[in-house]
Design brief:
InterPro entries: HAF_rpt, Ig-like_fold, PKD/Chitinase_dom, PKD_dom, PKD_dom_sf. This is PKD domain-containing protein. It comes from Paraburkholderia ginsengisoli. Helix 1 runs antiparallel to helix 2 and helix 3 runs parallel beside helix 7. The chain folds into 3 domains: 479 residues, Methanol Dehydrogenase, Chain A (8 Propeller); 135 residues, Jelly Rolls, CATH 2.60.120; 92 residues, Immunoglobulins (Immunoglobulin-like, Sandwich). It is 10% helix and 43% strand. Strands 1, 2, 4, 5, 7, 10 and 12 form a 7-stranded antiparallel sheet that branches. The protein has a 5-stranded antiparallel sheet with strand order 3-6-11-8-9, with no helix packed on it. Strands 45, 46, 47, 50 and 51 form a 5-stranded antiparallel sheet that branches. By secondary structure, it is mainly beta. The protein is built from 8 helices and 53 strands.
Length: 736
C-alpha cells in the first residue's frame, strides 16, 4: 500500500459534492502534495530531482503528470507479499485525474506542485490529512540471480516429501522423498541425505531467482536408462543425459546452448532411483518481458505479484484510460471494469484472485474481486457510493475502505459468503483497512473521538489500538505478515515521520533513522525484515534494510538518493536509486552483492531501454520495473520478443515526415519477426520495415500527421511462434 493512502478520491468528491467540485477535485488529485507540510515532506523524500520528464513516452496528462506517476512508482514503497496487498486506489486516483484532464493537459504542461488546494477541499486542510496524502504520493535470500545453486537435501527429516523447501532458492520439487543415506542403504555423494523417486519420476521447476539457467547436473544412483531431461518455458525438450549402465552416484549433466532451462525431469519410465546434489547453474542476467495494455504509463504495487509468476496492476490503454490488467505468466489481459472507464488492480493472491477498484456507470469507484473463472465482481458498499479494495489473503478475504456518508469512511472486510462487513472505528468518523494476513488479522488505522487516527490490528471481532510512539500525534499501520508482525508509521514533533515495527510481545518499536528526520517503512517479509526509505543527515532519502533492531543504509548507485520498495521472502530487495549522473535506475540488493543496477543485468536488452525503478518482487524472484518503454517483467522464462522505447527522428509537425524506430531483441535467435505500426490518428495501421540478425533487430516506418494533436503511436512485434510484444508512446504534433 502507498503509505496512508487516505480516502480522498476524485470520483468520491465529484459524486457526493456535485459537478461544481470538478475543478477542485482535479486540483486536489493532481496536487495532493500541495500543502505546506506535504510539500516539505515530499521534497525531503524525493530530493526534488526529476530527470524523467518527457513528452514522448508520456501519458495523457503531459510530461509533468507522467513524471509524477513515474517518480511515485519508482521511489514509492508499499507493502509486500503476494497473498496480501493494499489498494492501488492512489494510482487509480492519479490515473483517473489524468484521464479526465487529458485534453486540457495536452495543450500545456501541468504544474502539479504549484497548484494550491482550494479551501473547501475536505481532508486536505489539516496537517494530518496533508501528511496522509503525501505519504500516499511520495512514500512510495541472498544472491542476485545466483550463478548456481545446489540442492544437497541435508537437514530434511527422514520420509519428508520434498516440495517447496527450496522455493527461496528458486526451485520447487515434486516426486522426491528425503531419506538419510544410511537408512536407505545407498551412499550419498555429499552430506548425509539423498532423495528417492519411488514412482520413477522426479521433477524440478525453476524460478527466476536463478537467472537464466543454462546447465543442470545431478548425481544418480539407479539402473540403466535413468535420464535427466531439460525443458524450456514452452515445455520444449532442450536436451538430455542418460545413464548407460547401472551405477552409483553417476553424474548426469546437460548444458543448453539455446533457451533457458525452466524445468528438469529425472525418470526412467517407472524404475525407482536415488538422487543427490542437484546443481542448477544460471547466467547473471534476467530475461525481460514488456507488460502493459497500450501506453507506457503504468504501475504495479509490491503485492501485485505472486509465486506462480502472475502479475496484476494498472496500465493505460491506447485511449489513455487506466485499466486493471492480469498477466497469467504467458499473456496479459485487460480485466475490464464495472461499467465505467477506469480500473486499477491492488493485489493478487496465490490463487490468482485480483482485487482493486473499478468505475461503475456513473463514474464512482467500487471495490472489486476478479478471477479468471468468475470475472469481475462488485463487492458492494457500506451505504455510501464509494469503496476501494486494498488487500486479499490466501483464502480470498478482501479488506479495504468504503464510504458511509460524505464525511464518514470505514474499513471493511469482505468474504464471498458474508459480503461486506463494517470494521468500525475507535469512536471517530474514519477507519481504513490496509492489509490482511493468512490468519485473517487486519491492520490499518481508525480515528479516536479527538479526531486523530491510531494504528490498529483486528483479530476476529476485536480491534486493538496499537498506540503511539513517544511524542507522536497519530499512527497508522500498513502491513502485517503471517506472524502478526506489523509495520507502519507515526508523526511526532517538528514534522518528523517515524516508522515502527510492532509485535504483540514487544509493542511498538521505533525503527529509527539514518541521521535525518524521516523514515518510511515500505515492506516486510515473513522473516520480519523491513525495507523502506529514510533521510540521512543531509536530508537525502536512502534505501534501508532493518532486521533485529539494526538499521542498514543500502546506499545508492552513485547518486544522492534511493528507496527500497519491496523485499522477497529470501531477502532480495528492489527499488530505485540515483546514479552518478542523476538518472533514476532500478536496483536489486542482497547481503552478498550489495546494490546492483538492474540495467547491468538485463539479458538481450534492446537498444535504448532503461529500467528506471523496481516496484515489486515475488517470492519466486520475478520483478516488475518501470522503464522508458513502459512496465517490464524482469526474470521468469519468457521467450517473447522484447521491444525498447519508440524514438522519433524529429519533433512532429503537421505535414512533415517523421521517422519512427524501435529496437527489439529475442532470446531465440532463430526467430524471425514481423511488426505493425499504429498511429492513433485514424489512419490505417502499417507494416514496419524490419531489419534483424541473430535475435536483434529494428522496426522502422515514416509517417505524416495531417492534424495537430496528441496521438498514441504503438508498435507490435510478433515472432514466428506467435508471441507478441508491444510498446507505445504519445506523440505531440504541432502546427508548423
Amino acid at each position: 500500500m502507498r503509505r496512508g493512502r487516505f480516502i480522498v478520491r476524485c470520483n468520491d468528491f465529484r459524486q457526493e459534492r456535485g459537478a461544481d467540485a470538478r475543478d477542485e477535485c482535479s486540483n486536489r488529485t493532481r496536487g495532493c502534495a500541495g500543502s505546506g507540510l506535504a510539500l516539505r515532506i515530499r521534497h525531503r523524500l524525493e530530493s526534488g530531482n526529476d530527470t524523467s520528464r518527457r513528452r514522448v513516452g508520456g501519458f495523457g496528462g503531459g510530461r509533468r503528470c507522467q513524471s509524477r506517476l513515474t517518480r511515485t512508482s519508482e521511489g514509492g514503497g508499499a507493502s509486500p507479499r503476494a497473498d496480501r496487498g493494499h489498494g492501488p486506489a492512489t494510482t487509480s486516483r492519479r490515473f483517473a485525474s489524468m484521464g479526465r484532464a487529458k485534453t486540457k493537459a495536452r495543450r500545456h504542461d501541468m504544474n502539479i506542485l504549484s497548484r494550491a488546494h482550494k479551501a473547501n477541499i475536505f481532508y486536505c486542510s489539516t496537517v494530518i490529512r496533508a501528511l496522509l496524502l503525501v505519504l500516499s504520493c511520495a512514500a512510495s535470500a541472498d544472491g542476485i540471480a545466483q550463478p548456481s545453486v545446489t540442492l544437497n537435501f541435508d537437514g530434511l527429516a527422514d520420509g519428508v516429501f520434498v516440495t517447496s523447501q527450496y522455493a527461496a532458492q528458486g526451485v520447487t520439487v515434486s516426486g522426491a522423498t528425503a531419506f538419510a543415506a544410511a537408512s536407505a542403504g545407498v551412499p550419498a555423494h555429499s552430506g548425509q541425505n539423498v532423495v528417492y523417486a519411488g514412482t520413477g519420476l522426479m521433477s524440478f521447476q525453476l524460478g527466476s531467482s536463478l537467472g537464466q539457467v543454462k546447465k543442470v547436473s545431478a548425481y544418480i544412483t539407479g539402473p540403466t536408462n535413468v535420464g535427466l531431461f531439460a525443458y524450456d518455458s514452452a515445455n520444449t525438450l532442450l536436451g538430455s543425459s542418460v545413464m548407460a549402465s547401472n551405477g552409483t552416484n553417476v553424474v548426469l549433466s546437460f548444458t543448453s546452448t539455446g533457451n533457458a532451462i525452466a524445468r528438469v525431469d529425472i525418470h526412467d519410465g517407472g524404475a525407482s532411483f536415488f538422487v543427490d546434489d542437484v546443481t542448477f547453474t544460471g547466467s547473471s542476467q534476467y530475461a525481460l518481458k514488456n507488460l502493459g495494455l497500450g501506453l507506457s504509463a503504468g504501475t504495479v504495487q509490491p503485492q501485485g505479484t505472486n509465486a506462480q509468476g502472475q502479475v496484476a496492476g494498472v496500465s493505460a490503454n491506447l485511449n489513455g484510460d487506466p485499466r486493471a490488467f492480469f498477466y497469467n505468466g504467458t499473456s496479459i489481459q485487460d480485466i475490464g471494469t464495472l461499467g465505467g472507464k477506469y480500473a486499477a488492480a491492488a493485489a493478487i493472491n496465490s490463487a490468482g484472485r485480483v482485487v482493486g477498484n473499478a468505475g461503475i456507470a456513473n463514474g464512482a469507484m467500487h471495490a472489486f474481486s476478479w478471477t479468471a473463472g468468475s470475472g469481475m465482481v462488485d463487492l458492494g458498499s457500506l451505504g455510501g457510493g464509494i469503496a476501494y479494495a486494498n488487500a486479499v489473503n490466501a483464502s480470498g478475504t478482501v479488506v479495504g475502505v468504503a464510504s458511509l456518508t460524505l464525511l464518514k469512511y470505514h474499513g471493511f472486510a469482505w468474504t464471498q459468503g458474508g459480503g461486506m462487513t463494517d470494521l468500525g472505528s475507535f469512536g471517530g468518523p474514519l477507519s481504513y483497512a490496509s492489509d490482511i494476513n493468512s490468519a485473517g488479522q487486519i491492520v490499518g488505522y481508525a480515528t479516536v473521538p479527538a479526531g486523530w487516527p491510531h494504528a490498529f490490528v483486528r483479530t476476529g471481532s476485536s480491534m486493538t489500538d496499537l498506540g503511539l510512539l513517544p511524542g507522536a500525534q497519530f499512527s497508522y499501520a500498513t502491513r502485517i505478515n503471517d506472524h502478526g508482525q506489523v509495520i507502519g508509521g507515526a508523526t511526532v514533533a517538528n514534522g518528523r515521520v517515524s516508522a515502527f515495527f510492532w509485535t504483540a510481545a514487544n509493542g511498538m518499536v521505533n525503527i529509527g533513522t539514518l541521521g535525518g528526520k524521516l523514515t518510511i517503512a515500505n515492506d516486510i517479509n515473513q522473516a520480519g525484515q523491513v525495507v523502506g526509505s529514510s533521510t540521512d543527515s543531509n536530508g537525502n532519502a536512502r534505501a534501508f534494510f532493518w532486521a533485529g533492531g539494526a538499521l542498514t543504509n543500502l546506499g545508492t548507485l552513485g547518486g544522492k538518493t534511493s528507496s527500497a520498495n519491496a523485499i522477497s521472502g529470501s531477502g532480495q530487495i528492489v527499488g530505485t536509486a540515483d546514479t552518478a549522473n542523476g538518472e533514476r535506475h532500478a536496483f536489486v540488493w542482497t547481503q552478498g552483492t550489495g546494490m546492483v543496477d538492474l540495467n547491468n543485468r538485463m539479458q538481450s536488452a534492446p537498444a535504448g531501454l532503461v529500467l528506471t525503478g523496481a516496484l515489486a518482487i515475488s517470492d519466486r524472484g520475478e520483478m516488475v520495473a518501470t522503464s522508458n518503454a513502459g512496465l517490464m517483467l524482469i526474470g521468469g522464462n519468457s521467450s517473447a520478443p522484447v521491444v525498447g522505447p519508440i524514438v522519433a527522428s524529429v519533433r512532429a509537425t503537421v505535414g512533415a515526415a517523421v521517422d519512427f524506430k524501435a529496437a527489439f531483441t529475442d532470446v531465440d535467435a532463430s526467430d524471425s519477426h514481423s511488426a505493425t505500426w499504429s498511429w492513433g490518428d485514424g489512419s490505417l495501421a502499417q507494416a514496419a520495415t524490419v531489419t534483424e540478425s541473430a535475435g536483434t533487430g529494428n522496426a522502422t516506418r515514416t509517417h505524416v500527421f495531417s492534424k495537430a494533436g496528441v496521438y498514441p503511436v504503438s508498435l507490435k512485434v510478433t515472432d514466428t511462434t506467435g508471441q507478441v510484444a508491444q510498446v507505445s508512446t504519445e506523440i505531440v504534433v504541432t502546427k508548423k
